[in-house]
Amino acid sequence: MRVLHTLQRLGAVLLAAAALHGAPAAAADEPGWSARPAAGRPAAPRPYFYLAGPAGAVLEDRLALTNTGDRERVLTLRGADAYNTPDGALAVRPAGNAAGAGSWISFGGSATVTVPARTRAVIPFTVTVPPGAPPGDHPAAVVAAESGHEAAVRVHLRVGGPALAALTVEDVSVRGRGAAAAVAYTLVNRGNVALTPGLGLRAEGRFGALPGRAARVLPVELLPGQRVRLTEPWPDAPALDRVALTLTVTAPGAAPATAHATAWFLPGGSAARTGAGALALGAAAGAALLLARRRAARRRAGGPRQPAARPPAGAPEGAHEGPVPEHELTGAPR
């Protein structure tokens, strides 16, 4: 893509009137119009914009708006920041909230375009990268809107400089039981480039390895600095075991990251787990009492028995000399 320091025909609208019967509406939220990148050279369709340049550069591209309906459309254009929703989907910030690369996008003197019926309009726009912009990916989008309906086209913008791919996996836990079991975890992109992570799950029970999940690529594009909370189905979770889980995530160019968690799997849900806990507590108390009794018995058996001493003549009845014999505490009422 060309790097331009000045632009000619900024804001010009190039109209190519043509019969558009049956033309597909690629990115439209409302039937009748669509927004997509204008075809490049050769004329091949592009799913998104890709722009790259150093800090301080001015980059140019073109947006194609296609009106397949019988009435004209008045569309408002803007740049927007792109981000990950908490579950990993891609979204764009609402109007007036662009603080990143979305604010670098400009459509010239007017951001409102009228597209006649059955017409395609090609709209040039610029991306002015600030001189101090950090290197790496800066996700953004071009948004066309009409009467509350919007269509967004991704802008992959990379600023030149060192690229760092880094991610971590955190907060691992297990939800559900049996075939409905799933492992929940958080992925964090700690680098400056977008990542397509992969995930593998290893499980170890009290008696050996358990079925986990083979490594696979996740259907998520994790943008720089973003944090998402995901779940991985685990239908092979055991019915009864104590399991040590190890999650390993990978991404091209990034070092593998791991996280660990321990989970109890018991039949019967929370009631069974509560009963099992009470049973374990009772067993521990019983073992402690048995140990105390054994120690007392060893002390009593430690030396030779001495004959009982007779009380001296004239001593009161019940008086005696020598050590007082020990009595085992059994807990019975006296």
Molecular structure report:
The chain has 334 residues and is mainly beta. The protein has 1 helix and 19 strands. It has 2 domains: 14-159, Immunoglobulin-like (Sandwich), CATH 2.60.40.10; 167-265, Sandwich (Immunoglobulin-like). The strands form 4 sheets. Strands 3, 5, 6, 8, 10, 11 and 12 form a 7-stranded mixed β-sheet that branches. It is elongated, with a radius of gyration of 37 Å.
SSE layout:
Layout: E1 14-17, E2 33-37, E3 49-53, E4 58-67, E5 73-84, E6 90-92, E7 105-106, E8 112-115, E9 119-128, E10 136-137, E11 140-146, E12 149-159, E13 167-175, E14 182-189, E15 198-205, E16 208-217, E17 227-233, E18 241-251, E19 254-265, H1 269-300
End-to-end distance: 97 Å
Q: Write the CATH architecture name of the largest domain.
A: Sandwich
What would the principal axes of the Cα set say about the shape? elongated
Low-confidence stretches: 1-29, 270-283, 318-334
CATH class of the largest domain: Mainly Beta
Number of helices: 1
Helix content: under 10%
**At the fourth CATH level, what is the homologous superfamily of the largest domain?**
Immunoglobulins
Q: Count up the domains.
A: 2
The run of helices and strands is: EEEEEEEEEEEEEEEEEEEH
CATH topology of the largest domain: Immunoglobulin-like
* Mean of pLDDT: 79
Give a count of the beta strands, DSSP E runs of length 2 or more: 19
Class of secondary structure makeup = mainly beta
Cα-based radius of gyration, to the nearest Å: 37 Å
Largest sheet: 7 strands, mixed
Query: What fraction of the residues are assigned to beta strands by DSSP?
Result: 35-45%
